[in-house]
Specification:
This protein is mainly alpha-helical. It has 28 helices and five strands. Among the domains are: 130 residues, Rossmann fold; 96 residues, Tetratricopeptide repeat domain (Serine Threonine Protein Phosphatase 5, Tetratricopeptide repeat, Alpha Horseshoe), CATH 1.25.40. It comes from Marinobacter santoriniensis NKSG1.
């Protein structure tokens, strides 16, 4: 009796199924249960790679994929790759099958939104009930999903509006899809109305999130950030809200707060690689190198079997480890330096890309220099010069990183000449010019940068409070770390000129001002401080005459 088709034969018989599990007995058992439900087209595979290859060449209506697939990719990686490569249509169903119920697994898998979960052990009645409901929904909404697959969003919207009175049981899905479609088309007014209509009837977290997304797009940052904070308080496991809140805080110009939000999110759901990468980038920009290195470490580890794996992640991890170990001689710094070299070695074996060896060698050179291994660093630098000379064109990011290494080894003139050439080549690209300017101002490790910046802030505070002696002392101490920093030199000039108005040692102070100006003699016109430099230079000339 168990092998006879159930009344659901019409639902199952027309669909193609793919079962992905590394245990043969389970695959065979699932096939038997599906056949007894009326399914006919059933393919069995043991591993993730086979599953992805099968979906690349065959249409699949329902994927039943185990989370644990042995060595290599797991079910989350399969879903991530199928979604990324668009190998599953919107009308296809993906069910995660698992015996594991750890929070990390569930949260990680949920990030990629499977259509459902099946928990082992599975019996025929459970399988049929769960699949029947999903297949009924699939069939009812098939015309809409077909139009979305074709990227015909206006027609999909029209189909949603027509379906609302006819399919009241799927109203939630239809309204959510409608809001998403309006947003994708840039019709923010209709998207906002859709979410407001839902929220007027019932408080649903997806509608609140959608409304906040529209508010951010409309630059209503404060309202969006407040609403997202409230949403997270009510639903602390709603990971999309953390991502959107971080985005909102960044747009408000509060990157440190955005970083804290992503740190909190990573604690809740540590297996989301793209969020770890965002956290690493944000922490790096905030000069929080310890957090950045740990987030890059997680990004690299999670990327091992991910479609989003990238050599840049390895380079970034090695760079942050180099920054942490630079100039330190303890065991921890030595371990960080060794880890950086090991990460670069793994990267070289894992990726075959033009120019990757050069990028790797540039970071290695800084690692050796940071541990006072000057002989190894200089030998590597000779090899780097040969590689650079053989290139027709040096990209901006590669050139800037090479200049950073030249500064680290004391070849300042060579570094400045290289940056000057890059500034000419990329004169129309403000972001690149900003990076060049930052390196010219602060060609030192991050610890020294932080110290110089703290002293600069102390100097500004002292100047604003009228304590010119303390201000001058702070700026001079900062300039001992970064002598060519444009803003610091100009800050000190301003303080000394102010002091010269109240002292008999005017000539001595003006002499110090001229020394600061001499340091900035080659300041490029594109530099943010250039106009201020010219203005103070003229003012100083007036004082001299």
């Amino acid at each position: 009796m168990t092998d006879s088709p159930s009344p659901g034969i019409n639902r199952f018989g027309k669909l193609s199924f793919l079962i992905v599990d590394d245990f043969e007995n389970f695959r065979l058992s699932m096939r038997q249960m599906l056949r007894s439900c009326g399914a006919d087209k059933i393919e069995l595979v043991a591993h993730a790679t086979q599953a992805i290859q099968y979906c690349a060449y065959n249409h699949v209506d329902v994927v039943l994929c185990d989370y644990n697939l042995g060595e290599g990719k797991n079910g989350q990686h399969v879903l991530e790759e199928l979604r990324h490569k668009k190998l599953l249509k919107r009308s296809s169903l993906f069910l995660m099958v698992t015996a594991e119920t750890s929070k990390e697994m569930v949260m990680g898998a949920r990030e990629y939104q499977p259509d459902g979960y099946l928990t082992k052990p599975i019996n025929r009645a459970m399988l049929e009930k769960r699949l029947s409901a999903l297949i009924d929904q699939r069939n009812a909404l098939l015309p809409i999903n077909r139009e979305i697959d074709r990227e015909n969003y206006p027609e999909a919207i029209s189909q949603c509006l027509q379906a609302l009175p006819r399919q009241p049981r799927y109203k939630t899905w239809l309204m959510k899809t409608l809001g998403d479609l309006y947003f994708q088309l840039g019709d923010l007014a209709h998207a906002l109305k859709t979410y407001d209509d839902v929220l007027a009837q019932r408080e649903l977290s997806w509608a609140r999130l959608g409304r906040c997304r529209v508010l951010l797009a409309n630059r209503n940052y404060d309202e969006a950030v407040d609403a997202l904070r409230q949403l997270i308080e009510k639903h602390p496991d709603y990971m999309e809200a953390y991502d959107l809140l971080a985005e909102g805080l960044e747009k408000q110009g509060r990157p440190a707060r955005a970083q804290k939000v992503l740190e909190q999110a990573a604690e809740h759901s540590p297996n989301a690689m793209l969020r770890q990468r965002h956290l690493a980038e944000l922490a790096g920009a905030n000069q929080d190198i310890a957090i950045a290195s740990e987030a890059w470490r997680q990004t690299v580890a999670l990327g091992t079997h991910s479609i989003h794996d990238n050599s840049r992640h390895y380079l970034s991890l090695a760079h942050t480890l180099s920054e942490l170990s630079e100039g330190e001689t303890g065991e921890e710094a030595a371990a960080q330096a060794n880890e950086a070299l090991a990460v670069l070695s793994r990267m070289e074996k894992r990726f075959e890309e033009d120019g990757l060896q050069l990028r790797s060698d540039i970071v290695k050179c800084r690692v050796h220099a940071g541990q006072n291994r000057t002989k190894e660093a200089e030998a590597l630098l000779d090899s780097i010069r040969n590689q650079v000379d053989s290139q027709d064109h040096l990209s901006a990011d590669l050139g800037i990183d090479y200049a950073r290494t030249l500064f680290r080894l004391g070849h300042d003139d060579e570094a400045k000449a290289l940056l000057g050439k890059l500034a000419e080549d990329y004169a129309d690209e403000p972001e690149i010019l900003q990076q060049i300017e930052n390196l010219l101002d602060e060609p030192v490790g991050f610890r020294q940068k932080l110290k110089a910046r703290t002293l600069n802030r102390d100097g500004i505070k002292a100047f604003e409070s009228g304590d010119l002696t303390a201000a001058a002392a702070a700026f001079q101490e900062a300039l001992a770390i970064v002598p060519d920093h444009a803003a610091l030199n100009l800050n000190l000039i301003q303080v000394l000129m102010k002091e010269s108005e109240k002292t008999t040692e005017r000539a001595k102070l003006i002499e110090q001002c001229l020394a600061c100006l001499d340091r900035l003699e080659g300041l490029p016109e594109q530099h943010r401080q250039y106009r201020r430099y010219i203005a103070l230079k003229k003012k100083l000339e007036g004082l001299q005459s």
